[in-house]
Design goal:
alpha+beta; two-stranded antiparallel ribbon; 6 strands; extended; four-stranded mixed β-sheet; 295 residues; 11% strand; 11 helices
Length: 295
């Protein structure tokens, strides 16, 4: 038998270091995170803000976050289920709704820091690329970095719809228009009209009209919630314009007062006192004695 070299020896395993828990779970890209949260020492612990965009099965989450030694701190957040307050009850995860969530977060965080009047962004979205400019006689715009997490950053991804909404809302975020809907890689040109169409749900309206003409039965099932809400293809653009207007009027989140329940529920069995245990034991002994007498 030939010589077999032991590659992984005992010293190897004794020095083995497991990866971070969120890396083992496949939830965090620490290489990207390090570059997003690392701050220069001459900044003297100034917060480095990130625009965090995440997608769940039924929700879109946008947050402004900064890192600290104790953990990440969320400054402001917006969710797609909040859009029902502004009149949007259907299609809460499409491209247009994601834009609305980004816009809502931008207006909310600017209102929190007193910058909403100074930096109003784009009043009516037109699809053109927009970068906020610093005011001459006021504070600088709110600066943040885009954090997409593990989401694939392909051209036309919904994560960039949230970015576009935050930019039009007045945030200063380094970006390029090469990942927005409408960018032609071959011609190296941006089609602003196509992006505007997606912002106002034009792609959804076209799909609704096409399906309604070609497959009426499938349309009834596929757009059931739209039909129940009374939303048709021709109404979608005006619906999103109204949502944008309402977001700018009142972007703040209303906290609900926490009310204590009337009855306190106890999930675990309460611990018995000494007297209760003593009486229970006497009852058990008495029952055993009765059984013996009956036999």
């Amino acid at each position: 038998m030939g010589y077999v070299k032991v590659i992984k020896t005992s010293p190897y395993f004794s020095r083995f270091q497991v990866k971070y828990r969120r890396r083992r779970e496949g939830k965090t890209d620490y290489r990207a995170r390090l570059r997003l949260v690392r701050q220069d020492k001459n900044k003297y612990n100034t917060h480095k803000y990130r625009l965090v965009v995440r997608f769940s099965l039924r929700d879109v989450v946008c947050q402004i976050v900064y890192a600290s030694i104790a953990g990440d701190v969320v400054v402001a957040s917006a969710y797609s289920h909040e859009l029902e307050k502004y009149g949007l009850t259907v299609g809460l995860k499409n491209y247009s709704a994601t834009y609305c969530v980004g816009l809502l977060l931008a207006r909310r965080v600017l209102s929190k820091f007193g910058l909403a009047d100074t930096y109003k962004g784009v009043e009516e979205a037109d699809g053109e690329d927009y970068t906020v400019e610093a005011a001459d006689d006021g504070p600088r715009p709110f600066y943040a970095l885009m954090d997409t997490g593990l989401k694939r950053t392909s051209t036309g991804s919904k994560v960039f719809a949230a970015l576009k909404g935050a930019l039009d809302g007045g945030l200063d975020i380094p970006h390029s228009d090469k990942r927005f809907v409408g960018y032609d890689k071959g011609a190296k040109k941006m089609d602003a009209e196509l992006l505007r169409k997606y912002i106002y749900g034009g792609h959804v309206a076209e799909y609704m009209e096409t399906m309604q003409e070609e497959e009426p039965e499938k349309y009834q099932a596929h757009f059931r919630q739209y039909i129940e809400a009374g939303v048709e293809g021709d109404d979608i653009e005006e619906l999103y314009k109204e949502v944008h207007r309402k977001i700018r009027e009142d972007p703040l989140h209303e906290k609900k007062e926490r009310v204590a329940p009337d009855e306190k529920k106890v999930w675990c069995t309460p611990k018995l006192t000494y007297e209760q245990r003593k009486s229970a034991l006497k009852e058990k002994l008495a029952s055993l004695m009765e059984e013996e007498d009956d036999e």
